Each structure stands twice: as C-alpha cells, then as structure tokens.
Amino acid sequence: MTVQEPSPEVQRPQQLETDVVVLGAGAVGENAAGRVAQGGLEAVLVEPNLIGGECSYWACMPSKALLRPGTALQAARAVAGSREAVTGTLDAAAVLQRRDSFTSHWNDSAQEDWVRGEGIGLVRGRGRLAGPREVRVEYDDGGTVTITARHAVVLATGSVPTPPPLKGLEGIDYWGTREATSAREVPARLIVLGGGVAGTELSQAWARLGSKVTLLARHDVLDMYPEPARELVKAGLAEDGVEVRTYTQPDFVRTGADGCVEMGLDDGSVLAADQLLVSTGRTPALANLGLEDLGLDAALDSGRLTSDDSGLVSGTDWLYVVGDAAGRVLLTHQGKYEARAAGAAIAARSRGELSASSAPEDWSREASTANHAAVPQVVFTDPELAMVGRTLEQARADGINASETSLELSVAGSALHSDNYRGWAQMVVDEDRRVLVGVIFAGPDVSELLHSATIAVTGEVPLDRLWHAVPAYPTISEIWLRLLEKYGL
C-alpha cells in the first residue's frame, strides 16, 4: 500500500484503511512495519518527524560517530611503533563532518525510499488513537486523515527526556542529548548532568574534541555496573581530563553575568561553563496519544503500558506497544527485537494461528523472551563496558543460587592489542543448572566479545559444554578460558 505525501494543491484522502497502523517510524517502527509486511499484511507508518527516528539522527549513530575518532586515536597511541606516528590531535571539524555523514545530514529521503520500496505506506503527520483500531492523523498544515486498521495498531513512539526538578533549569538554554549529538561547535567548558550511559559517553566524546568537561552524578557513574568495571571507565574519563564528581546534587542553575551557565552544588560551590548538557533519563512517549480517551490509561503502570511478550497491551486485542514506548528495555536493538516479535504475532493472529487471549510461547518468534534475562548492552566509552544478562545482585534478587567468577582481563590477545591493556571480566553462574546467567567485560574493544556471551546466556549453554568452545590464540577471547579455569573447570 502506498500513501504518498501530496503536493499542496492535491486534496488528501480523509479516510484510509489498512491491516496495521504503526505510530512512529523510527528504527523500531520500521521493524514492526517490515515484519508485518513480510507476514503478508498491509502496513502504514505514521511519523511527524524524520523517518529513522532518534537512533539514526540524535542517539546511536551520531554519538558513536563522535566517539569513534577519539577511540581510534587512543588505540594508535597505545601501541609502541604506532604512537610515534601520532603527531597531532583530533580535527574537531572533520569529526563533526563525519558525524553529519552518518546522520545523512538529517535528511531522511533514503529512509523514505526504503519504506516505499518495502511496500509500506507512509503518512507524515502526528497520529492519535481515535477509537479501537482507528488512528486520526493531523498534518502540519492542520489537515487530517483517519486510518482504520483491520488488525492492529502499534505504538512505536519512542521516549522523551526526563529533566530533573532543578531550580532555574526552565530559564536556561541547555543541551539535551539531541542537541549534544548534533552540535556544530565544541564548547570551551561543558557541564554534564547525569552519570548514566549517555552522560558518560558524551562527556568523553566532547572532552576528546577539546572541551573542558565536568561530569556530575547523583550516585556513582554507571552505578548499574559492578564497581571494577565502573572504576576502569572513571579512570579513562580522568585520563581525558574529565572531572568526575560523584554523589553530587545540584541546587540551582542560572545564567551568569557574562552569559555563561552557573550551577550551584549541594556543597556550596558554584561551577561555571559555556554549555550545560542534561542527561538524566528518559520516559516512554505516551502523552497525547488518546489513551485516556479510550480508557487505556488504566493499563498504565508507573508510566508504561502493561503488555505481554508479543507487545499486546493488557485488556485489548488490537493495540501493541514496542521499543522505548513500551518502557521495558530502552535500547534500540531490544526495541527492534520487540518489534519483530510483535509483527510476527500480529501476522500469526491475523491467520488464526495465535489467539489474542493467550500469550505467545517463550522463545517463539512471537515473544520477546530475551528481555527478561538475556539483554545485551554496551557503553561505548574508552574503555568499553559490555554486559548481557544479570549481575550477581540481580540474579540473587531473582532467587537464583548464583556465584560469580571475575578476574583482570589479561591474556596474550589483550597484551598484543595494546600496551598496558587494562580490563576486567566477570561471569555469573546459576549453580543449580550450571549455566551462565550473566557476563560482563570491561576494556578496550570488548564490545566485540559480547555476542558470544549473548549466545551462551540465551542458549543456556552448559558450562561443561562451554569448556569445549576453544578460543582462538592469541585473541582477547581467551578470557573465556581463563574464567572457566578460575571457576574450576
């Protein structure tokens, strides 16, 4: 089904009908619509902004494009023979230009071509639920179209920042993550408020581009990770000149006499900077979607919709929620995974192969079962953190008889990778079943180790069998052997 954006002189249709309507054409919405189309159904994407969404233009891609040049430069400096060839610093203008190429200069025409090439309809406008299986879309010029879905409506509307209740913040022209990943100039001084993944990554990126960065964290930096992993990242930040202040609470923020940003802290000190970046979390973007008009706000639990593993919202047989909008795991790759499961479930239910009254079977194509116990995630700082599954504390809180085995990441492959390589690794074992339930790596380039860990955790590979998975020599993957040896195999 093709829904073209008409020229102003062409009258738009006021009514459309299709099999599935997907609100939100980010990476998650695209995957939902694509999987629906693969299942033989018609789908229409509704999007008021750029197709490709946050990940393509303001999050995953531009942030990693900002980080990679500094990491590459540091990698060259970390090896004798190549460090002598390094004669300069990062070219900030070239880094920003390369960043722009990865966002397609904030032009989504290629994404639009993909949508249409897949036979997916596209309506550019802001959608709102108007009834069961019915969406009303308002164009920017005020015109409207009502789209009726024969089978399902999918909410893939993403998430929005949650700024803190900080005195004076509403009067400051500050950066969110969008502004930080699309900025055109390097601020001389930058305050970063928030010690989570985005805050730490962007602190290092802008510090390596030449900014004097102060990172403020209410608790510890990356406090969802074990302490040895956190300490390695903090050491890396310090080496790049980032001043990290943990367990710090801001009291106020204001514009200084010279136009700079001034932030007062709970210890009475005042920081000054040319720019403030606020990165204190995100929440599902569910406002103004018409949920309350349909009584669906009753399905909201702590700001997110309750749903089964196919994304089907509780109390409905037609509404699905996936990705950040679902509020389960706010990671692009998991959102795309949820979208694939939802699309497969919608197609199966349309054929009568799966009922709306029963949840899909675990580990079927219609269920995002991995969300419960096998989520991979990476912090792309230098050094990197890569984790899948549960930490020791999480495993024990879930009632698992868990043990941990950890050691410094020091093998022949890491020594060859860079001089004075510093890393750490941990595996968490379910002692009753003798399988891995969590793995964490910290160190340069450890993200490339993560998928092997994800397979082991997701596949519940027995440790006695995992011992026979021989790591190639000399690679950093030899850490698997060292962990198993220390465990006692």
From TrEMBL:
Keywords: FAD, Flavoprotein, NAD. InterPro entries: Class-I_Pyr_Nuc-Dis_Oxidored (IPR050151), FAD/NAD-bd_sf (IPR036188), FAD/NAD-binding_dom (IPR023753), FAD/NAD-linked_Rdtase_dimer_sf (IPR016156), Pyr_nuc-diS_OxRdtase (IPR001100), Pyr_nucl-diS_OxRdtase_dimer (IPR004099). Residues 19-334 form the FAD/NAD(P)-binding domain. Its cofactor is FAD. SUPFAM superfamilies: FAD/NAD(P)-binding domain, FAD/NAD-linked reductases, dimerisation (C-terminal) domain. Residues 375-480 form the Pyridine nucleotide-disulphide oxidoreductase dimerisation domain. The keyword NAD applies. Gene3D superfamilies: 3.30.390.30, FAD/NAD(P)-binding domain (3.50.50.60). It comes from the Bacteria. It holds the Pfam family Pyr_redox_dim. PANTHER family: DIHYDROLIPOYL DEHYDROGENASE, MITOCHONDRIAL, DISULFIDE OXIDOREDUCTASE. Belongs to the class-I pyridine nucleotide-disulfide oxidoreductase family. This is NAD(P)/FAD-dependent oxidoreductase.
